[in-house]
Predict the 3D structure of the following.
Amino acid sequence: MENRKQERMKELTGLLKEAARAYYAEDREIMSNLEYDRLYDELEALEAETGIVLSDSPTVNVGYQSVEELPKEKHESPMLSLGKTKSREELQEWLQGKEAILSWKLDGLTVVLTYDGGKLVKAVTRGNGEIGEVITNNARTFKNLPLSISYQGELILRGEAVITYSDFEKLNAKIPEEEARYKNPRNLCSGSVRQLNNQITAERNVRFFAFSLVRADNVDFHDSRSAQLDFLKEQGFEVVEHVMVGPSTIQKAIADFEKKIETYDVPSDGLVLTYEDIAYGQSLGRTAKFPRDSIAFKWADDMRETTLLEIEWSPSRTGLLNPVAVFEPVELEGTTVSRASVHNISILRGLKLGIGDRITVYKANMIIPQIAGNLTCSGNLPLPERCPVCGGPTQVRSINDTESLYCVNPDCAAKRLKAFTLFVSRDALNIDGLSEATLEKFIGKGFIHDFVDLFHLGDHKEQIVEMEGFGEKSYAHLAESVENARTTTLPRLLYGLGIANIGVVNARMLCRHFHNSPEALMEAEKEELSAIDGVGEVIATAFVEYMANEENRKRIRALLCELRLEAPEENTAPQTLSGLSFVVTGSLNHYENREALKAVIEAMGGKVTGSVTGKTECLINNDINSSSTKNKKARELQVPVLSEEDFMEKYLGGNSHADQDAK
C-alpha cells in the first residue's frame, strides 16, 4: 500500500512538473488550472499522509527554470508562492480578527524592480523563486512604468507585468494565421517580457502593476502595508487595485471583486489577502514554500452538470481536427454555455467521453468553458475515420506524447484556409468580417468549399446568425462587405487566386499587359509571358500550369459570374526599384508591418524574397548587428544590411509613404 502511494507521488510529481514547465518556461498549457489544482492537492495530501516529500516535489519547488539566453541573478530573498484557498469562510477565518489588504491576483509575470538615485537600475523576473532573469532593458519599455521617481534612496518593489485583454486581442488580430496566434494574454506577456530585443517588448504594450514594497531606505511606514502602497502611488507607479478589509467587510469586498471580473480588462486568476500590520505578518514567518503573511484566494468554480450531446471536429489548415464538446446548455458565470474545447485525443480519452455521458463543466478563470469531469465515463466515443470537411481518411498522430487527430487528404478544403485568407485579404477581394477564425468555422460547417461559395453565404444565414460571436448585426455587416466585394478589379482577383509568385505588383503588370482581359490571361502562352519585363521563365511556367488546370479555369469563370470588374487605377509610382531584389526581416518603425513595406517595394518595381542570395540588393533589418541567420548570410555574401531609415533614405528618398500613389 505504501509503495503504491509513493509511486503515485512520483507520478504526480512528474505530471505537475511537466505542466509547470510547459506553462512557465514554454508559454503553453497541457492541462487546465482545475486539473493542476486537483493533482496538486492529491500530492499534498499524500505527502501529509506518508510523511515523505520528494526533493523535486512542486510543493517545495516553485516557478520555472530560467531560459539560457537572458542573464540570471539570484534574488536577495526568495520569492515564494502563496498558500491558496477557494473558501470564502476560510479566508475570513485567516484574518484572525485583524485588518488586511485584499487585491487582485494578476495573471502575468512577476518582476522585481530596483531604483537607485531616482532611476530604474535593475529588473529581474521571478524565475524559479531563487534565481530570475535580468530584463532591465525590456522593463524600460513597460507602458506605465516611471523611469525616474522623486525618491532618491534605494527602492525595491515587486509587481506583475501584464498585457490587457483588449491589447491582447489587437495584437492577435495582426497575426493572419490562426495557429500562430497567442492562446492567452499571460503567454503573450511572458514571451514579451523575456525578449532579447526590447523593441519587440515595446510593441506589445506590457504594463506593470506594483503589489508590494520590499525596501525603501529611511522611510517609516508605521508598519502599514497600505501606507507602502500609497507611497508607491506617489512615486508614479500604478498599484494593483486593492481595498482594506476586516472580518465584517471581507465578504462584501470579495463579492465586489467577483462582479468586477466580468468586465475587468487586466487578466486575473483570483485575489490576494495580506495583513495590513507588516510587523505582525513578518512575525508569523514562513513555510518552505509559503509566507504566512499572505494567502491567495482562487474563485470557486461555478460547476454545472449536463449531458454530452456530440463531439464536433473543428478543422485547421494543417489538417488537425480539434474535438469540441457540444452539451445541453447550462448557465455559467451569468452566461449560457453549450460548447467547450477538448483540445486533443489524449484529453478526450482521459475523460473517457461518450455521447450521452453526464459531464461537469465550468469556466476556467471564470472565462473559458472547460469540462471538469465525466460522471458516466462510458468511453464509447468512436473517432471519425473520415474528415467532416472533405470525407478523406483521418489518422491519429502522437507529437510530444500528445495524441491528435489529423485529416491526411492533401486536397482537404480545410487545408485551403490560407488560400481563403489570402482571397478575402485587403489587397485581394477585401471582404471585411472574414477573419481566419471565422473562415475556419465556415469551412468546418461546410458553408464554403471554394472561393465562389463566399458569395452565397446567404444560403446559410440562419445558421450563421446562431453561431457564437455572430448575430443579426454581424451577419448584416458581413453580407454588406461581401456585396461590396463584388465590385473589384482583375488585378485584385488575380492576386487573390494565390498563383505561385504572383504578388500585387505582378498581378497589376500582367493584367495591364493583357488589357485586363480574363480570357487573354487564361490563354496566355509561356513564351509571351517570359518576354514580359520582370516576369521570367519561373513565373511564366507557374502561371501557365495554373491556367492549364481545368478546375482552376472553372473556378475563375464561376467567380467572373459573381463579380463586376472595373478598370484598375493606374500605378503612377516611379519604377526606380525595377530589377532589384530585397529581403525584409524583423520589426519595423515606419510601416505597419513587413507586408506594407513589401507593397511599397513592389509598387516601385522591386521584388521582396524570403532569403538572402548573391542577387539580393540589400537586407532590411533594424537590428543591423543581429546574429540572425539572415544577417550572417548577408555578411557572408557581402550583401549590405540596412536599417529601415537607411533603406528609405537611399531608395525612397526618405519618404515612408511612397506607396500612396500605388494604393
